[in-house]
Amino acid sequence: MNAPDDPSGSSCYRQVFAEAPAVSTTALSRVDILGGHTDYNQGFVLAAPMPLTTSVELSLKENLGDATGNHIEIEGYSTLTGDKAVHRIPATSDSASRHRRGDWIDYVVGAARELQSAGADVSSFRLAASGNVPTGAGLASSASFSVALLRGLGKLFEHSLEGESLAKTAQRIERIHVGVNCGIMDPLILVDGTVGNALFIDTLTLAREAIAIDPDYRLEVIDCGERRRLADVGYNLRRDECQRAAQTLGVNSLRELDGDEPDLKDLPPPLDRRVRHVLSENLRVIEARNALKSGNYAALGRLMHASHLSLRDDYEVSVPALDRLVEDCLTAGALGARLAGAGFGGCVVALIESAQRDTWRRRIATMNTRACVFDSC
């Protein structure tokens, strides 16, 4: 989903640099309906794009500080952090971690390096990033930024990526240049999904199936008020635990167990609980796809709640604020609710009847004063 190259409306780039950008691109956000922590285990996921977006505006920049051309200078501003930065990197690609800063510029450097690796002739540039995807909320803000960056830089340097190639490159930005060992779900949803449809993905084969969401039902996304950063919490730890469990069970990934629950007594805690969640969640995703295709939204809601309980008890990625908000959503009349994204804070996704939206939102606002409804899809 790309914006026009010469936007006539409000431009963050124009406000910062007092000129029009050469290129402007956007990327959506997403909410996962089911499939918590299954994508990096080569499992199944069911998610939907959200109409919250990240925008990136760019132009070429004369490198006044280096007449030799041995460096690429990046001058950027992000409304997402309120931070303006000038960063220089060697013109030729080198170790990703050597220039890691631990902030949003790492994504920009990663996108530039990945395009260089793909054959693009990248030189100095300016960029301005803006958007309404909340960070740390479990709505794929990082993937949204990565996809928007790759689209924008690809157009600026005439080396555009599309489809699976774009999604896999966005994944590499986070894995290699940021330090989060993420799965493929987020970028693939943002690249291949459309608002109003759920997307079922087999992350082993990358086979995908779009399923229309009945307009009589809505997915409401509600912020619990607590934030997290994936690189600073248990996300990478959970992935490591799954890898250790797979090694103990003699498989390359938990997907190879193919729904046949092994003897969990062979696994020490908490690895037994981690495997139980992944296997049961894969089965729930398959059931949820079938429920969505048949229009059985009551069953979909029950599966969403079962997913949350498993994420809370077996995968241990929930927090009290999320648990309370899930229960408030159900009490207010939702058919189902679960934590969104990786957990550890952020948002809850709730399935409601569209006709009840206004009443349901009023109930949530009364029951949970910290809750904030972002959007629905």
Automatic annotation (TrEMBL):
GO molecular function, one term: galactokinase activity
One GO CC term on file: cytosol
Highest rank taxon of the organism: Bacteria
Signal sequence interval, chain numbering: none
Residues of the Galactokinase N-terminal domain: 12-56
GO biological process: galactose metabolic process
Pfam families named in the record: GalKase_gal_bdg, GHMP_kinases_C, GHMP_kinases_N
GHMP kinase C-terminal domain: residues covered: 291-356
Keyword annotations of the record: ATP-binding, Carbohydrate metabolism, Galactose metabolism, Kinase, Magnesium, Metal-binding, Nucleotide-binding, Transferase
InterPro entries noted in UniProt: Galactokinase, GalKase_N, GHMP_kinase_C_dom, GHMP_kinase_C_sf, GHMP_kinase_N_dom, Mevalonate/galactokinase, Ribosomal_Su5_D2-typ_SF, Ribsml_uS5_D2-typ_fold_subgr
Keyword check for DNA damage: no
Residue span, GHMP kinase N-terminal domain: 107-189
Family classification: Belongs to the GHMP kinase family. GalK subfamily.
Protein name listed in UniProt: Galactokinase
